Amino acid sequence: MAADEWPGGADGGRQRWPPDVERCAAALGEPQQWSQALLTLLGLMRRSGLPTLLAWGPELRLLYNEPFAPVLGTRHPDAFGERMQDVWADAWSTMGPAVQRALAGEACTLKDVPVPAGPGSRGARRWFTLSFTTAYGDDGLSAGVLAVASETTEHVALERRNAFELLLADELGTLTTGAEIAREACRLLGVHLDASRVSYLETRAGAGTVLVVQDWTAGELPSQAGRELGVADFGTRAMAQLRAGRVIRVNDFADEHHLHNTAWDGDMVFAETRSLLAVPLFRGGRLAAVLQVDGSSARSWTDDEVAIATELAQRTWSALEAAAAQERRLRAERELHSAAARQSFQLELADLLRPLTQAEPIIAAASALLGRHLGLSRVLYAEVDDGEGLFRVRSDWTDGQVPSIARTARRKLDDFGPAIIAALRRGETVAVDDVQHDPRTAACAAAYAQVQVRGLVLLPLLQGGRLGIVLNLHQARPRAWRESDLQRARDMAARTWLALDAARAQAALRAERDQGRYVLDTIGEGFLLLDRACRIVQINAEGLRLVQLRAEAAIGAMVWDVWPDVRDGALAGLHQQVVRTAQAAAMEYRRVQPGQQDSWLEVRALPALNGGVAVFYRDIGKRKRAEEQLKEADRRKDEFLATLAHELRNPLAPIATAAKMLALAGLEPAAARRAGEVIARQAGHISRLVDELLDISRIKRGVVALEREVVDLRAIVPDAVEQVQPLLESCRHQLVLDIPPAAAPVFADRRRLLQVLANLLTNAGRYTPAGGRITLALAADPAQVTIAVRDNGIGMTPQLAASAFDLFAQAERSSDRSNGGLGIGLALVRGIVELHGGSVVARSDGPGRGSELVVLLPRADRASVGDAALPAAAKP
């Protein structure tokens, strides 16, 4: 059989298809040996006008008719005799399962299958519906697959286009800015067309250039956003085509013959681009923009793809126009709102500053208002010493999120950027969106970081040609400053400068007016100016404090209305005397106020020029109370001396008697021994009195040395009880000990604590009637140890309880000397306890109801012992 003959079937007809029969013979054997079933199927294929394919044999070798060749694209004619899986390897994941089902005897159909045109093809992808049936051999068994193709490319393209248009409408409909619309349109078109890059370019009529405003890439080509191209990059002919409204298609920049037949005659600036589609867009009859689709490989652009790109370009342009109109409307609204806000701010600022007359409140109020209106982090005024190149901040306002930097040390101007300072010296407003990236401040970013500043606005005030004050607006995060922000800051600065100038002028007037008042307010005495009728004309601050009045309640009032208690008293007489005699006079006046401590005033009255009286008065209450205290101390001293004389005289009488007995001749040894014991006992009593006097003297002078160690108070109690046992037994007192089982450690002088316990018990024994009950209780908590001595004795008045531990207080507890003692025992207790860092308190429910004396000492722990282990003497 000739190479160009094709077996026709049972009738033995011939068809000149395909041209390469040898390929089929190599795969399936010589045609004369083909089975009748295969020949029959080939005859059916030849006579069929439908694109039909037969995959025959175990390897599914391909045979197909002429109408099927377009389905194969560039795979034809090499596909003849090849394995079906190899020919359609790129679509086998879709076709393979259907082929296997057909081989198994099951007919199946694949609808709208995308079939690649094949390697090296410039054509776009096509879609087919493929119907697969079983091809049976002469033995009636499955020998292959018969497939009939029906192209659905137009149908699928229409559906995809409709879906794309719906998606486009949905996606673009939600966007409001031109940048968002252009970016999303490029992305949608690129994904839909499976392009490498889609760019939106706008023409610059005045500059004769084209700017790549936005683009989208699939990762195969780099972004060109922001790049500006010249007309030569497109070429004169290409630009003419675009200006004429024609779409430019370039299938392959590497195909010079093809490129010659296109309108493209420019330099190909996008070196990686292999294919291109450019759609022009117009505004007012002029080329305004270009939507450009780039491919990284050669591609045959279809009319449908051109139509889709054109449709998207038009829709995008409409959306951009609508967004631009919306942006213009919003801009107008923003400008209107900004103008209204600016006017409102100006009115609020004017109302705020109007009543203020001092610089600091003016600056504080204006700074806070501006900070809140603009949402700033900090507002401050920097005072500049331009000659020294230094500045300082006296006060600032913050939003609470950044620290204040007021009252810090002066800093160098150049630390914050020489270029910035130079602009301020020229009187220019400086706005920095981000100090870390602005070239004027980047080198000084660390200085700004120390005060948490990223965004910055500075408004200078020049004084005599030099930089004097700088208004600072700080933002802790980068901020794109708007003109409305700067204008509001300028308004605030201008009005604040004026308010500060006015405040300085008023301050000068007030200083002159208030100089006299200042003198009166600083003399340390009350001053009162009365007219002839005794009406208050003027009163200074000290005068108001002394009489506990407010100025508004005093000025213009009659003295008798303000102080009714002086109407008929000595002060009224003093006023009348000075008015009548025109001579100065003075007196000490005691003012008695129910429920309050009496107050003493020294009053000096002088005749005034208005015919009234100028009164100077001062509080002499401290002096009067000191005099009373001296009198009281003198009284107690006298009582103490009387008590001391009594205490010394009592043991002297037994000593004198015993001495006389010893002088008698022939005194029996037993009597002499008793006399000696009396002398020793009474001398010991005198010695103890002297020791107490010396102890209290040393404590008062701060020369007592403590030998401190960790002591458990429980261990001291028996020794203290032993010391006072004779007193307790002689008075038939019952002593109750309330001692805790746990330790009560203190870091103290054992001998001195024994003295404290003994004195407390002795005091209770003396002032408790015979047969009384005395309780000694110890308690300890983590912080302190408590000693409490309670009795059911004679008790104390509240006044006496408050002074029980004062020196010489004993004399006030009894009118006679029967209890003994100098009244310094409890004073000695307080002195010793305070040397140990403790405290004392006396309690009583009243005379006849007993007393309780409490000592509080710090509990010993490692820290306190470590500290106290240093030389532990009381400091003089």
TrEMBL record:
Reaction catalysed by this enzyme? ATP + protein L-histidine = ADP + protein N-phospho-L-histidine
- In terms of superkingdom, the source organism counts as Bacteria
Residue intervals of the Histidine kinase domain:
643-861
* Top enzyme class: transferase
Question: A Gene Ontology CC term for this entry?
Answer: plasma membrane
Keyword Transferase appears in the UniProt entry: yes
Q: Give the membrane topology.
A: Multi-pass membrane protein
- EC code: 2.7.13.3
For this UniProt record, the keywords arranged alphabetically read as follows:
Kinase, Phosphoprotein, Transferase
Q: What is its main location?
A: membrane
GO MF term list: phosphorelay sensor kinase activity
Where, per UniProt, does this protein localize?
Answer: Cell inner membrane
Annotated protein name in UniProt:
histidine kinase
